């Protein structure tokens, strides 16, 4: 009967969605021996098959291999002692607690439990021999251990033969369980090496089996500091394996692109030449180099996936415009996607000035367009009369149909998720074919070299590492909030001299409402402070049309001081603005500060960025302000950022599609990363079966994720 009911229930349950990750599918057969709650806890730890337990490594170890005499046990670190319970009582000190006295030949220690079961009182009856693990402290009543881990033993119970692993865990899964499960995983899984011995010899890395066995159960006397700092050879082996798996999967992904078709859009040097002639400046050599790389890619019958990197103001837009023209020369359409309305509008304005004379139709598309205008844009895109479509996320909505999309340009790509980019890519893939548009991604958040080598290994990268000539360095000043008056005077001086200034309102992460209120207050305050100046306000909640109108007035010089929230972080380009004040700079991240600062220093005039901060500064904030003060180089700042925040935060949305590194550290393990890169290429070329086996071991079912 019970069985029947179960079967009926299963039929009724919702059909499963086709899953991208193994989490939502049935448990891996190797874990079928565990119950549902256990599986859920394991899944939380990223353990989806039993082998993942082998790769679930301890974060530290307890040393229960050596027994100390109670009186000689060092304090300040957990130790193992053993003795006989001589007294056991529930006391009120003032809270109810269980206190047991334990004695060995050398001395006495008190065990104190604030939470305990009645059964424990019985279990710890006088005369019982116990082994305690914990930290000894000198309490009011003498040496004591609070909530030690304890075990009832006989006098011949052997000591642990290895250090005791302490695993990262989650609610519902205790250490004892994890230890047992891991032991089982180590004994039943195939730990044979995926890599040839000759390779390991060359890299001076130990065998996989030895490494994981060692890391889970280090022998007594193993060097704890090398384990803790993960510099031990066993750790290096695991980290190398992880990096190799990542390199392999990225490489495979990269190579798969060669099996997908894209329209070949070879350079014709017609309208691109016209644009170059019409520009009021000459391209920098870095722009030319990046342009040539893109030009070559577009000519291939496989989709380009190139990341164009360059510091703020390095001139990525014109390089993108040239790429767009190459697609248009070939009779294809181009989509340009921006993360914000303001930035989209700027692209639209810039492309319109540059390409307007070349008789190219550009459609503007944004979420806030009037219905009629939106319809007109959509029609122009669908009919193919619009050769370029520029817009925000609205571009991705299903209603947008391109007639012949050949190239998708994604600005500030790190703000978009892998999924959104995929959606755009698929727009160009006509049903039933495997043809995809080319893709050019742009980022002003420089990606440190190690990050590019690992997480971005599936992309080609072009770097514009040179600013257009004639830019003046931006002077950065750190000013305590208490010296606001001086700052006010500087703004007055700058504006009287014909310059313009930004006043960036503090970031208030907890509340958008509060953030808006602060911006309104600041605006009112500055209006009162500067009766002689025209003061404008722009913030995220402003209707798009108003936002654009304010930006336009600022650009035209009708507004002298622009009070803004961080919406101006990206893309805003007003060369006459030479002064920026950032309030509560201590609350902002490095990348954000660098982006904001890049809004000035865009003209011939010397520019200044004033970072107003409020005391007291946290250690982290102090560090950030020091870096931003000392360096104007985006790459250097990004490298610091990587160190401070780790890759997860830096990568933002991208991480959803890329296997994250759990063990390797891009800062400390550069040598392993470099080695893994070379080995990955070699293996895929010469020993694909080895590569496959290695990927299987490390990624298991998660490999398909990469296909996104
Ligand atoms: P970003 O890389 O931050 O997107 P932009 O493309 O907005 O930078 O360029 C910043 C400014 O520099 C723009 O006003 C642009 O027209 C100008 N610019 C771009 N390339 C050059 C160049 N080679 N010489 C002079 N000015 C340039
Ligand atoms: Mg830009």
CATH architecture of one domain: 3-Layer(aba) Sandwich
Mean pLDDT: 86
CATH homologous superfamily heading of one domain: P-loop containing nucleotide triphosphate hydrolases
Bound molecules: adenosine-5'-diphosphate, magnesium ion
Structural class, please?
A: alpha/beta
Verbal overview:
It is built from 24 helices and 23 strands. With 708 residues, it is an alpha/beta fold. Strands 2, 3, 4, 5, 6, 7, 8 and 9 form an eight-stranded mixed sheet that branches. Helix 20 (590-597) links the parallel strand 22 (577-582) and strand 23 (607-613). Residues 1-24 and 703-708 have low confidence and may be disordered. Residues 316-317, 411, 444, 571 line the site of magnesium ion.
What is this structure's SSE topology?
Layout (H helix, E strand, L loop, with lengths): L1 H11 L23 H9 L5 H5 L5 E3 L4 E2 L9 E15 L3 E8 L4 E6 L4 H6 L5 E7 L1 E3 L2 E5 L2 E4 L11 E3 L8 H14 L8 H7 L4 H9 L7 H5 L4 H24 L14 H8 L6 H14 L6 E6 L5 H14 L3 E5 L3 H16 L5 E4 L5 H13 L4 E4 L13 E6 L7 H11 L9 E6 L5 H6 L5 E5 L9 E7 L3 H13 L3 E5 L7 H18 L5 E4 L5 H13 L4 E4 L12 E6 L7 H8 L9 E7 L5 H12 L3 H18 L18 H17 L1 H12 L9
Parallel strand pairs: 2-3, 5-8, 11-16, 11-17, 12-14, 12-15, 13-14, 15-16, 18-23, 19-21, 19-22, 20-21, 22-23
Antiparallel strand pairs: 1-10, 3-4, 3-6, 4-5, 6-9, 7-8
Bound molecules: adenosine-5'-diphosphate and magnesium ion.
């Amino acid at each position: 009967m019970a069985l029947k009911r179960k079967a009926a229930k299963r039929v009724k349950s919702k059909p499963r969605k086709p899953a991208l990750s193994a989490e939502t599918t049935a448990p891996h057969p190797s874990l079928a021996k565990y119950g549902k709650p256990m599986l859920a806890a394991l899944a939380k730890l990223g353990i989806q098959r039993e082998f993942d337990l082998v790769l679930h490594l301890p974060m530290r170890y307890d040393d229960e291999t050596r027994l100390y005499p109670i009186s000689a046990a060092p304090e300040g670190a957990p130790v193992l002692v053993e003795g006989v319970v001589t007294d056991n009582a529930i006391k009120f000190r003032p809270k109810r607690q269980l206190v047991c006295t334990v004695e060995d030949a050398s001395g006495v220690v008190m065990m104190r439990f604030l939470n305990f079961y009645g059964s424990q009182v019985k279990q710890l009856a006088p005369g019982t021999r116990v082994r305690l693990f914990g930290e000894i402290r000198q309490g009011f009543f003498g040496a004591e251990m609070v909530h030690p881990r304890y075990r009832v033993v006989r006098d011949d119970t052997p000591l642990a033969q290895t250090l005791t692993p302490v695993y990262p865990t989650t609610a519902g899964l205790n250490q004892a369980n994890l230890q047992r499960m891991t032991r089982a995983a180590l004994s039943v899984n195939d730990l044979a090496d995926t890599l040839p011995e000759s390779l390991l010899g060359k890299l001076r890395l130990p065998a996989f089996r030895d490494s994981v066995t060692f890391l889970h159960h280090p022998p007594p006397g193993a060097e704890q500091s090398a384990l803790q700092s993960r510099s031990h050879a066993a750790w290096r082996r695991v980290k190398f394996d992880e990096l190799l798996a990542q390199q392999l999967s990225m490489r495979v992904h990269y190579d798969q692109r060669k099996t997908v078709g894209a329209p070949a859009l070879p350079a014709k040097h017609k309208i691109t030449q016209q644009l170059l002639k019409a520009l009021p400046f000459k391209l920098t050599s870095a722009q030319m180099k990046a342009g040539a790389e893109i030009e070559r890619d577009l000519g291939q019958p496989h989709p380009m996936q190139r990341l164009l990197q360059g510091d703020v103001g390095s001139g990525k837009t014109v390089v993108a415009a040239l790429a767009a023209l190459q697609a248009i020369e070939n009779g294809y359409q181009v989509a340009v996607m921006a993360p914000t309305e303001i930035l989209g509008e700027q692209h639209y304005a810039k492309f319109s000035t540059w390409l307007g004379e070349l008789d190219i139709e550009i459609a503007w598309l944004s979420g806030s367009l009037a219905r009629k205008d939106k319809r007109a844009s959509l029609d122009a895109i669908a009919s193919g009369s619009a050769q370029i479509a520029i817009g925000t996320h609205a571009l991705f909505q299903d209603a947008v149909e391109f007639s012949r999309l050949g190239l998708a340009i994604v600005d500030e790509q790190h703000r978009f998720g892998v999924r959104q980019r995929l959606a755009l890519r698929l727009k160009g893939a006509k049903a039933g074919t495997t043809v995809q548009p080319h893709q050019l991604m742009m980022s002003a958040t420089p990606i440190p070299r190690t990050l590019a080598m690992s997480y971005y290994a599936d992309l080609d990268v072009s770097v514009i590492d040179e600013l257009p000539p004639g830019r003046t360095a931006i002077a950065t000043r750190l000013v305590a909030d208490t010296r606001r008056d001086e700052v006010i005077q500087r703004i007055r001086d700058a504006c009287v001299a014909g310059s313009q200034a930004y006043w960036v309102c503090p970031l208030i992460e907890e509340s958008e409402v509060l953030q808006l209120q602060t911006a309104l207050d600041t605006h009112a305050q500055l209006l009162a402070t500067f009766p002689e100046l025209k003061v404008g306000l722009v913030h995220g909640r402003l209707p798009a049309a108003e936002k654009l109108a304010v930006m336009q007035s600022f650009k035209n010089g009708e507004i002298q001081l622009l009070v803004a929230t961080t919406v101006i972080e990206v893309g805003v380009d007003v060369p006459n603005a030479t002064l920026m004040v950032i309030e509560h700079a201590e609350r902002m991240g490095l990348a954000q500060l660098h982006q904001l600062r890049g809004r000035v220093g865009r003209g011939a005039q010397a520019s200044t960025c004033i970072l107003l901060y409020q005391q007291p500064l946290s250690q982290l904030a102090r560090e950030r302000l020091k870096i931003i003060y000392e360096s104007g180089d985006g790459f250097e700042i990004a490298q610091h950022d990587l160190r401070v925040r780790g890759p997860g935060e830096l990568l933002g949305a991208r991480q959803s599609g890329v296997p994250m590194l759990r063990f390797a550290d891009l800062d400390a393990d550069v040598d392993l990363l470099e080695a893994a890169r070379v080995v990955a290429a070699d293996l895929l070329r010469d020993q694909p079966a080895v590569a496959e086996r290695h990927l299987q071991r490390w990624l298991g079912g998660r490999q398909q994720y990469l296909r996104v």
